[in-house]
């Protein structure tokens, strides 16, 4: 964990040195990092990041929309920690809200829903799949 000021001092120059040559060569740069990074999204863009995976819980849908939409591809990490405890309705609402707030005709949204716990009910896994199909690939 570090402040935006420390990020800009210590990591941003390193990220820029690593990522900008890739972007100049026409390659997308995907960065995976956990936590609340809303305050440094513009810095990530300046470094050359084109895809980032904001966690839903610490960043919120509204925060991700404000910081990412139209600027950076958000590969939203749905609330994996909540999947064992959420109802199918809550899961469906979460996915609908993410797609409704962040999807744009020009793109810039990906979703991931890791199932990392054996206690996630099968019905919740089915709901994740069905909801992604419903909201991401409407018929």
Strand runs, count = 4
Structural class by sheet pairing and helices:
alpha/beta
If you average the pLDDT, what whole number results?
Answer: 94
Question: What overall form do the CA principal axes indicate?
Answer: globular
| Strand ordering within the main sheet | 1-2-3-4
Residue runs with pLDDT of under 50 for 5 or more positions: none
Major sheet characteristics? 4 strands, parallel
Strand content: 5-15%
Q: How far is the first residue's CA from the last residue's CA?
A: 43 Å
How many domain units?
A: 1
What is the alpha-carbon Rg in Å? Answer: 16 Å
Which CATH-level-2 architecture?
Alpha-Beta Barrel
The helix count comes to 6
Spell the H/E element sequence: HEHEHHEHEH
Helix content: 40-55%
At CATH level 3, the topology is TIM Barrel
Main CATH class: Alpha Beta
Describe the model.
By secondary structure, the chain is α/β, with parallel strands linked by helices. The chain has a single domain (4-136), classed as TIM Barrel (Alpha-Beta Barrel), CATH 3.20.20.210. The protein contains six helices and four strands, in the order H-E-H-E-H-H-E-H-E-H. It has helices spanning 4-24, 41-47, 56-59, 61-68, 88-102, 122-136; strands at 30-31, 51-52, 73-77, 109-112. Strands 1-2-3-4 form a four-stranded parallel β-sheet, covered by helices on one side. Strand 1 (30-31), helix 2 and strand 2 (51-52) form a beta-alpha-beta unit. Helix 1 (4-24) runs parallel beside helix 2 and helix 5 (88-102) runs parallel beside helix 6 (122-136). The model has no long low-confidence stretch (mean pLDDT 94).
